[in-house]
Amino acid sequence: MNFDPRYSGRNFASVGTRPIRPDGVDKVTGRARYGADFNMAGQLVGRVLRSPHAHATIRKIDTSKAEKLNGVKAVITAADLPDLTDGDAALYDILDNCMARKKALYDGHAVAAVAAVDARTARQALQLIEVDYEVLPHVTDVDEAMKHSAPVLNDTIFTEGLEQKPVKPSNVTKRSQYGHGDIHEGFGRADYVVERSFKTEQTHQGYIEPHACVASVSSDGTADLWVCTQGHFVYRQHCAQLLGMEASKLRVTSSEIGGGFGGKTHVWAEPVALALSRKAGRPVKLVMTRDEVFRASGPTSATSIDVRIGARKDGTITAAEATLRYSCGPYAGMWAELGAMTAFACYNLANVRTVGYEVLVNRPKTAAYRAPSAPMAAFAVESAVDELAKEIGMDPVEFRIRNAAQEGTRSSYGPVYGPIGIGPTLEAAKNHPHMKAPLGENQGRGMACGFWFNFGGQTCTDLNIGMDGSVSLAVGTVDVGGSRASLSLVAAEELGIAYEQVKAVVADTSSLGYNDMTDGSRGTFSSSMATISAARNAIKVLRERAAQMWDIPVDDVVWENGHAIAKGEKYGNLAALSLKEIAAGSGKTGGPIAGHSELVADGAGVSFATHICDIEVDPETGATKVLRYTVVQDAGKAVHPTYVEGQYQGGAAQGIGWALNEEYVYGKDGRLQNPGFLDYRIPVCSDLPMIDTQILEIPNPNHPYGVRGVGETSIVPPLAAIANAVSNAAGVRMTHIPMSPPRILAAIEAERGGRWSK
Amino acid sequence: MAGVAVSTTINGDNVEYLCQPDETLLDVLRDRLGLTGAKEGCGTGDCGACSIILDDRLVCSCLVLGAEAEGRRVETIEGMAHGDRLHPLQQKFLEHAALQCGVCTPGFLIAAKDLLAKNPDPTEEEIRFGLAGNLCRCTGYDKIVRAVQDAASVMKGA
Hints:
The complex is a heterodimer. Chain A is of the alpha+beta class. Chain A folds into four domains: 24-32 and 456-601, Aldehyde Oxidoreductase, domain 4; 40-136 and 212-287, Aldehyde oxidase/xanthine dehydrogenase, a/b hammerhead (Aldehyde Oxidoreductase, domain 3, Alpha-Beta Complex), CATH 3.90.1170; 138-201 and 298-415, Aldehyde oxidase/xanthine dehydrogenase, molybdopterin binding domain (Aldehyde Oxidoreductase, domain 4, 2-Layer Sandwich); 422-450 and 605-758, Aldehyde oxidase/xanthine dehydrogenase, molybdopterin binding domain (Aldehyde Oxidoreductase, domain 4, 2-Layer Sandwich), CATH 3.30.365.10. Helix content of chain A is 28%, strand content 23%. In chain A, helix 10 (335-342) packs parallel to helix 11 (374-392) and helix 19 (641-660) crosses helix 20 (718-730). By secondary structure, chain B is α+β, with helices and mostly antiparallel strands. Chain B has two domains: 4-79, Beta-grasp domain (Ubiquitin-like (UB roll)), CATH 3.10.20; 88-157, DNA polymerase, domain 1 (Orthogonal Bundle). Chain B contains five helices and five strands, in the order ββαβββαααα. Chain B is globular and about 50 Å long. Classes of the chains: A alpha+beta, B alpha+beta. At the A-B interface, helix 1 and helix 19 of A face helix 2, helix 3, helix 4 and helix 5 of B.
């Protein structure tokens, strides 16, 4: 591949415009097909039996009565999904999470499944399955789980990352550490030091579409899977491995996806549906209920974080450290490590150290949630930064500007930054009219910064030019929120044709090479890179065909504005050939015209944002209202600015819900108390104001158009920005997310010496 | 269990079906009639993704039994456009990018249509409270509210 991914400044014709998305009409007319909207002839209904216990040994499962029920076509347990993971610990955890093998590890853990002719029969069959549990002591709180007295979930786990291997197993799977310099020396030079502990509760991605799939395994060993997923190639790989199939024999088609936010990056029900179909010999549709979505899929980590930051009187931070404890559910993860990497990434620090602890608890397996782990770390750090600025007597924005990372700064997690947007987003926030707007009684303003790495990864794209000159773009990154529009813009830009001439589709796993999933804000970044590369390969073919049509050397043909042009005075009488004209003659000049690209999209530019918000707190009830919210974020280059704004607004809204409302509530029995949208309350329309956005464009040097990922960073600052606003409004530092009315009221009363209580 | 015979009107068409007594109208629409535009996001009336209009009243079809549609008028997202002519709300949702994943969109469009039928000139606050029964996790609602405002002004001028 001789594709040069480096940024080159150019004037854009299509990129940066705001056309209607190609999948739009189907989505406003109800025609678009999501995970649960697909059916196959002879399809059965699958349902999963789940553990009611937080922690229990499975002594025996008797499925005989269920199997005898009329209409039941298959019943499976872990025995039907034998361990084929061959020592791959991460894959074993996925298998065990799909279907509990020896122990049920959380309320909602799958223990058996049925396929029946209809939903009612399937539900009846579940009630006939007898599971003999030996209930074990459980632990759901991250701090409790770290204590020596806590029940140990997995006695083969000995904490990794310690100098000496521990002699006893524990719930701490790993310790990780990042940083540089000498924090003791740094704190020694500080005039002011702020030290605080923070907690955040577990939240769910809250996608409106529950997990859904249709699996069909044929007796010849081939299979089809229709599924809502952020990564159908990854699902194919995991499902094939878990079922002992060759990947090429399993065709996975990604449906339209009704939200993912990281929660549809892992298989749960899909291997179960395939195993049911294999056993029943018929297609099986498996759709989770909302209760199952909350109890068994998703959630992010609950955390407990200690932060200490020191600064001189002039506002220079001299040292910073954080200890971060993140819950992983019952399986090992690297969630605290991501928190430890991102915590201080916004700042230029001489002395910094972060330590992360991955903690097992009897809750669902933690899954990625939009910039996973970064929002909680930012909440703790940005709260402490605000408090420190106040102690020094500096404006919180000025304090951050003074300490902001710049090009050439060594980041707290290791790499040296290229051109970055933290300083510019802070300057833009400082100059934003929002900062100068007056505040009323009981109102407070807060701001905070956020960082996310952004990923690139493996990407494969096909660009086929039809004989009528229209362009089919087949991409392998699932479109979670408008990327078919942005990638069509990129193809049109590169080829010099109209946006409407391009039709982008997400190809199935048998029609295109492997693609990593749509995560890490990589969809538009990486697939646009592959689209540019594919288009350039197609242009090479188009030039060759034009040269052939004219009978001149290909080196004399250039491509401009969608046309082949013969270069040089001697060709003065040759009229330019349009893409359409070249395509029309392709049958006589060598056949179909296409461009293909496969690449690893390196160099995803890091992303920064600064958010500002105004909150009103009712001091008598602790209730809050978000009055105004502004997002400033660097996009590198906004390919479709309207959808970039949408990413900024959506991330902010999710962060607002996390900051103020959302949390998993567990009872003493270890059962989830609020597995539904009534009691797990995500923000509704009347909770929010308009969310203003400001897009900055600091080109990513590692992308031809300067594009950076934009999807995730927007959820990083809100927890802290809102906590700072609430703290300013209520006159008391808030340290526990979500800041629900009872927590705010308790904090206000504690600050006033409890004189309002009773 | 014996099926219940139901005669109803869906998007102006006379429709007859057999359903179980405990079967929701949402399941009937999706599984028996192939009208999958209404989505099941929760099954408990909390998310609004299955919104339909039943005799001029906005309801969650997951909270209505299939048998209850007997003799009534059902409007779903599939009946909102006239042929290839989109309803102004549909057009404005596209223009404002008021959808990202789009799974909540049919419910929002039905709820917004009902809102504008009852209040053709709503304030921002009235729109926000009028749509508070529909959950969207992608957009932060900003562009949805703007699309409804824009559609309202177009429809008034029509």
